[in-house]
Amino acid sequence: QKSQNTLTTQRAIAKKSEFQGDRPPSVSNAGIVNAGRDHYIDVKVQGEPLNRLQVVCVTFHELDNVKVINLETEEEIPHSINYGFEEFTVTFDQSVPLGQNIRVIIEGATVRGVNRGAIVPYRIFAESSTFGAIPLGTALVRTPDNN
């Protein structure tokens, strides 16, 4: 029986010709919009098309909705969302192509009901057809001290 890591490595080697460049997707920016009521995380799609994003809210987190847009056109990218305990997974209807910048908007984001004076960490993972879920890093959102 082969381990999951071995299978992932073999799949990556088999699809090497489809992987363009040597960089995974990356978190390029994070912050607040809508007068501090919504948090956002920007992701640059590199290496290969992006199938899925997982966002882990490492604090007790509340939110109203999640929206994903193409950062250049500001059009919503068709997707479905699976919400879990302090995390959500965005699965794109079609893979997001290379070179596209996307913005994940976490609407009505609060930590324990508070939306001011906090530093909110989000752990971000990406998934493509070659690689399983790989960590992209942690996005930090600083909320205003007053709003």
Secondary-structure blueprint:
Elements: H1 4-14, E1 26-33, E2 38-44, E3 50-57, E4 61-62, E5 65-70, E6 79-84, E7 87-96, E8 101-107, E9 110-111, E10 119-127, E11 134-142
Antiparallel strand pairs: 1-2, 2-8, 3-7, 3-10, 4-9, 5-8, 6-7, 10-11
Structure description:
The structure is a single chain. The chain has 147 residues and is mainly beta. It is 7% helix and 50% strand. A hairpin with a 4-residue loop joins β1 and β2. It is globular and about 40 Å long. The model has no long low-confidence stretch (mean pLDDT 85).
Termini separation comes to 56 Å
Structural shape? globular
Number of strands: 11
Order of strands in the sheet with most strands: 6-7-3-10-11
Q: What is the share of helical residues?
A: under 10%
List the keywords.
single chain, 147 residues, mainly beta, four-stranded antiparallel sheet
Q: TL;DR?
A:
With 147 residues, this protein is mainly beta. It has one helix at residues 4-14, and strands at 26-33, 38-44, 50-57, 61-62, 65-70, 79-84, 87-96, 101-107, 110-111, 119-127, 134-142.
